[in-house]
Amino acid sequence: MEITTRNLSDIKRNSEYLRIQTDVDALKKSIEKIGLINPITINKENELLAGARRFQAVTDLGWADVPVHIVDRGTLEQELISIDENLVRAPLNNLELEKCLNRGREIYETLNPTVTKVDLSNEDLSAELKQKQKEKEKLDTNSFAAITAEKTGLSKSVIKGAIKRDELASASVKKARSEGDLNASQTNEIIRLDKDTQEEVLPLIADKTVKEAKKIIQAAKSGGIDAAHEEADNLIPLPKEYTLLKSPLKRINKNLSRILLEELKYDGPEQQQINKEMLELKTNVDKYFQMLQENA
Questions:
Q1: Is 237 helix (H, G, I), strand (E, B) or coil?
Q2: How far apart are the first and last CA of the chain?
Q3: Which of 53, 180, 191, 280 lies 20 to 30 Å from 73 when distance is taken between CA atoms?
């Protein structure tokens, strides 16, 4: 790998993986203080492969030239360099991360045909098969998931799940996720269906909980889209307010039980506010059960 300098105006930014418009204020301060420790990476055609944030920082600082690593690699290897830079250095949103991981997997497995392939099947497994899969995963050291786990600190299972979501999700499912209409857990369920069926089932689960979505998807798998519609029609939807209440209630009851069991007392400055909130909670709980009795 050759190290030299290039004029910033000569460097081309063609890669779709480059993250140019990001906050680099902290990076600029570091470069002003100690200089640019790691050169940016370009190819023989002066195309930027890695170091977009460093490129942006030195451009903002008014540099004319910048130290560069020049790599002479094939097209796929160059793309993998850009992906690796994103995975290791740049904060990505969920969809960007999944796209980078899946494309990185494709390239890595193409360049290294003998390595362990990431399993893209998404069938329901028995407890015994799940255990065997976990044991096999522990022994995996050369798959894309394994080497990426070492670089990023993400677990192999998290990486595999992200890859599956990008590989198996239909275009409409990805769009729904990008618009916030579908979360990762719902996506994990719907990608058990083929992409055509996902398109049909998506409108049925977009406003459903993961548990409800799972029931609709199971119906689609066993009985087709008509069965999915029937299951969706028979569900009694849980209002959003109740959904938002479930987890906090569990935490409140757990902590309150511990306080009562251990007879924990607090006389600090926040006691008055806590007592006020507790009294308001008690009043609302009393009103809630009164409402249930009146509607019985």
A1: coil
A2: 77
A3: 53
Contact residues for 221 (Cβ-Cβ < 8 A; gap 6+): 192, 193
Phi, psi of 283 (to 5 degrees): -60, -45
**pLDDT tens figures, 153-170:** 889 989 999 999 999 999
> What structural domains does the chain harbor?
2-73 (3.90.1530.10), 92-166 (no CATH), 169-234 (no CATH), 240-295 (no CATH)
List pLDDT tens digits, range 106-143: 999 999 999 999 989 887 777 887 788 788 888 888 99
Count CA atoms closer than 13 A to 92's CA, side-chain side: 21
Q: How many CB atoms lie within 10 A of CB 221?
A: 16
Give pTM, 2 decimals. 0.67
Distance, CA of 252 to CA of 254 (rounded, Å): 5
